[in-house]
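Lab meeting, action items carried over

1. Structure of the two-component assembly. Owner: GW. Status: complete.
Input record:
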Amino acid sequence: MKSPMNSGDCILSVDRLSMRFGGIVAVNELSFEAERRKITALIGPNGAGKTTVFNCITGFYKPTGGTMRLASESGPIALERLNDFRISKQAKVARTFQNIRLFPGMTALENLMVAQHNALMRASGLTFLGLLGVPSWRAAEKRAVELATFWLNRIGLYDRADDAAGNLAYGDQRRLEIARAMCTEPVLLCLDEPAAGLNARESAALSELLLSIRAEQGTSILLIEHDMSVVMEISDHVVVMDYGEKIAEGAPQLVRDDPRVIAAYLGADEQEAIAVMESET
Amino acid sequence: MRTRSNTEANVKSLALVSGAGVTASPTDRKPALTLGFAYILKKALFSAFVALVLFSLMIGIRTEAGPTGQLTYWTRFDDLAILVAIVFVGSIVIELARQWLRPVGASSLVPAPVQTGLAVAGRFVAPALLIFTLLVPVIFYNQRYILDLGILVLTYVMLGWGLNVVVGLAGLLDLGYVAFYAVGAYSYALLSTSVGLSFWTSLPLAGMLASLWGVMLGFPVLRLRGDYLAIVTLAFGEIIRLVIVNWQSLTGGPNGIPSIPRPTLFGIPLTPGDDGLAAKLGIAFDPTHRLVFLFYIILGMALLTNWVTIRLRRLPIGRAWEALREDEVACRALGINTTTTKLTAFATGALFGGFAGAFFATRQGFISPESFTFQESALVLAIVVLGGMGSQLGVALAALTMIGGFELFRGLEQYRMLVFGIAMVLLMIWRPRGLIGHRAPTVYLKQAQAISSDLVKEGQG
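Predicted assembly:
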């Protein structure tokens, strides 16, 4: 398949990314691009290596090979050279986790305040000015609370702002985690199965939230998702992985009808899948 | 353990089933009770059996070397029988008391109204305690013992608040906190006796040196968690102590450092001479003056620690500490530098430990490595854990209970530790997350709600 992407305005370009764990090749020479202000979905059967790709992009793993370029205002950033916290701090790539990782003993508001750590650290003069309570610090803190309030309203959790994050319902926790990632003001938001465990109504609300984030904040989104209704509805571009390799990519409809994708998902032989499709038509 | 909790759960569910019958006919309470008795009896028999196995060798048979070196032994089965009987009856009594105190299946021994009552009272405890502490030198002016004890308690309050930053907020289990206390004490002792610096000049230096050592400890342990971190910090505390013992030329080794200068009030010593404070003020000299002075110094230092900690919690660094305790991976994903965050926690905790150490040196006038054993670390950690990790008031209350209570039981002599241990075990059963078992949020939109300790993580090290 010819790549339909025109690489003119891509936010992230992954080039021959490989990740090996001992003898196991989790990701093998994967290349794809994510366009700016677009939603790119990364799909594939369980164990295809999607989360490994995410962990490489967000600095939790150091890839064994390949490059990841993030386009930023100050020129391209080589993500493979930055380690963990710098990816979020300098490259402005935020992520969420497959199994929600909020700070359960802190309130929803506090969770969003922690996300603004780096901006607040600067404003507090590395704590010293903040300790003295200088006016500029107070103003910065007020702005941080305003940003947090904005996101709480956006995800419909304003009334639960002072509740412990661990006490929120599962769907609310998912949305709060996305809001927390957005509070770092990222250019690229990586979501690892945001719709997992949500009911139909909640995943519809999630789709809406993600579309509005793309439209209003202009954040590019990279998405791992199993819920095909969400993927088909919101993504602009889909990359399909199986056994650590890219097997297809393109617009959602194109990918959905691709026999190799169906084969990978159904676990069937490629010829068989084509036969099934032909018999259907 | 699992099987036991399973049987317990079975008993509970059975009791619930029979409880449903109770609602139908309130007079018929027999089934629940007989079931309870069978369970209690089973538990008591098991306890008695364990006691029998344990005590049969410890008490049942007494061995001793005879006059020609041969082994002589005799049996004391009557004593053994008495002990096993005590365990059997005691087990029944405890179990009955437990069932009486709480209905089977309830989660807590302390009834809910009492807990909310405690929370309400908690709001008045802190100001009341502060006012009382301020007045202690006035009320107990003529009781040197109480004043001395007050100074001791306040020193541990300060140490507790210092360690609370590391353990309670950042969730890093530090078993070697006494090292920083020692560094602070020796820094002041050496700076004053060899360089001749005054207490007030040495105090910040001692704090900074301790802080430096905090960072030095922090670096190698950055990647360690939980048990591993605890062991390394424990070793660090021992290393510092052993260096002090063996570096004779600098620290005086086991002999310690004598005649450490006392603190002065703006350069005026509190001595009976003509240049002393009493002479300058034109009042009669009284050795208690110095004690009162020391009391207010440590009170001021402790309150400074408290103020700084409360403020730090509301600053990004404090929130990052707590976030680190909750989930380190999430912190990294949010762009928080976990390395510097951990190091600042160690450094801040060590800073306060160093201040407290310098105060200890000036109060005692003499320091030796014996004052900085692992027992001190354990005591301070116990204060933090008992107080409720992260709670400032809890730590203060725990220090008062532990140090004050320890003195209170002085009359019990060798049984003091026993009473103390039992008290700790009981407290941990009743309030497993410490005296103050909830977390106060650092920022709120509408209303600050206490967060239940069930949700707050302890940190993985």
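2. GW to write a short summary for the group page. Key points so far: Residues 30-60 of chain B form the longest helix (31 residues). Strands of chain B lie at 61-65, 71-75, 438-439, 451-452.
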